[in-house]
TrEMBL record:
It is an enzyme of class 2 (transferase). Keywords: DNA-binding, Methyltransferase, Restriction system, S-adenosyl-L-methionine, Transferase. Belongs to the N(4)/N(6)-methyltransferase family. N(4) subfamily. GO terms for biological process: DNA restriction-modification system; methylation. It catalyses: a 2'-deoxycytidine in DNA + S-adenosyl-L-methionine = an N(4)-methyl-2'-deoxycytidine in DNA + S-adenosyl-L-homocysteine + H(+). PANTHER family: RNA METHYLASE-RELATED, TRNA (GUANINE(10)-N2)-METHYLTRANSFERASE HOMOLOG. Residues 100-339 form the DNA methylase N-4/N-6 domain. Gene3D superfamilies: Vaccinia Virus protein VP39. The keyword ATP-binding does not apply. This is Methyltransferase. The keyword Magnesium does not apply. GO terms for molecular function: DNA binding; N-methyltransferase activity; site-specific DNA-methyltransferase (cytosine-N4-specific) activity.
Length: 354
């Protein structure tokens, strides 16, 4: 049984007043148990209500985000909710069969140092990284609706060649790393590690239907000074489904023939430029990479989840397409960036409506 919250605790959880909680109870919008003069509400009911029960979740009390039992806090914007904390913990609190679509890009193994203790992607053993993602994505499958789809962007990397750290440079401030993972057992110096496919195949073995491997071609890719191999100009976007039959709006993402004679099914090579972010020292999830996933995998009003929310691109695209979104992010700096970006989009949409 999930934890029971008092009226006051429930108000903090949802970011509203105690009076509003009592109003929800009187209107039978929140199921509760009478306890003396107070009411007790199960955490699972509050989580469900936060995601589905209202169009607006209210503003946090005292200007602070409500804090959950696991120490996470949430930031609210209309149609959008950002949960602060470790996705390994938070995703277990989300209700079953809630989201129509999941779009995400987790930290890549051994590529970036986010300065977070026990961060995903900094595991000394590659198999630990893969197992951690498979466990998270197993929870993703639980919270995904039976007809939902899961879109995973992930890139490959090379062995570090025994290097222990990496400094930044003028062109890429986010390049610096205080650690470098050791070469995985069985591999050699300079080997390409097929991490992307290793994760995809592990997810398939865990029960996912692997439906497409999409090549994200980056015309403006990061230059490389290597002299004995090609410059990497692509990443992978894997499309999974929870069930054999699922929702997929083919018409929403069809492409035009080059001669303009009609429409064709979208192909599996997508040429999309990376997008800089003024507030961050790294390229962000491009909107044009996220948009086809949400258009194909959802209808208006559906719920979208990004368990590695980062700078909030999935939330922005969801807002623009009239979908609701929940994001999970452990880094407070990224949450602040995402909040500002999401609020700017909300303001533009309000101006368009007016």
């Amino acid at each position: 049984m999930s934890k029971l919250y008092t009226t006051e605790e429930a108000a903090t959880y949802l970011g509203v007043s105690s009076a509003r909680i009592r109003q929800f109870i009187q209107e039978d919008r929140l199921v509760s148990e009478k306890s003396g003069r107070d009411h007790l509400i199960q955490e699972s009911i509050l989580a469900e209500f936060a995601l589905r029960g209202r169009k607006k979740t209210g503003r946090p009390l005292n200007g602070k985000a409500p804090v959950h039992e696991n120490g996470s806090a949430s930031v609210h914007c209309q149609g959008l909710r950002i949960l602060h904390g470790d996705t390994r913990d938070i995703i277990r609190t989300l209700p079953d069969n809630t989201f129509r679509c999941v779009v995400t890009s987790p930290p890549y193994w051994g590529v970036r140092d986010y300065g977070i203790e026990n961060q995903i992607g900094a595991e000394p053993d590659l198999n630990e990284y893969i197992n951690a993602l498979v466990k998270i994505f197993s929870e993703v499958r639980r919270v995904l609706k039976p007809d939902g789809t899961f879109w995973l962007n992930i890139g490959n990397t090379y062995t570090s060649g025994g290097r222990k750290w990496r400094q930044d440079d003028a062109k890429n401030k986010g390049r610096a790393m205080s650690y470098r993972p050791p070469t995985p057992k069985g591999l050699k110096k300079k080997d390409l590690i097929g991490v992307a496919w290793m994760v995809a195949m592990a997810c398939q073995l865990d029960g996912w239907y692997l439906r497409n491997d999409i090549i994200w071609h980056k015309p403006n890719c990061q230059p490389e000074s290597v002299k004995d191999r090609l410059t990497v100009a692509h990443e992978y976007l894997f499309m999974f489904s929870k069930s054999e039959r699922y929702f997929f709006n083919q018409d929403a993402i069809k492409e035009s023939f080059k001669n303009g004679s009609g429409l064709k099914n979208k192909r599996t090579v997508w040429s999309i430029n990376t997008e800089p972010c003024a507030e961050a020292h790294f390229a962000i999830f491009p909107k044009n990479l996220v948009k086809p996933c949400i258009l194909a995998g959802t209808e208006e009003g559906d719920m979208v989840l990004d368990p590695f929310y980062g700078a909030g691109t999935v939330g922005i695209v969801s807002q623009e397409l009239n979908r609701k979104c929940v994001g999970i992010e452990i880094n407070t700096e990224y949450i602040d960036i995402a909040r500002k970006r999401n609020q700017r989009v909300q303001g533009k949409l309000m101006l368009q409506e007016s």
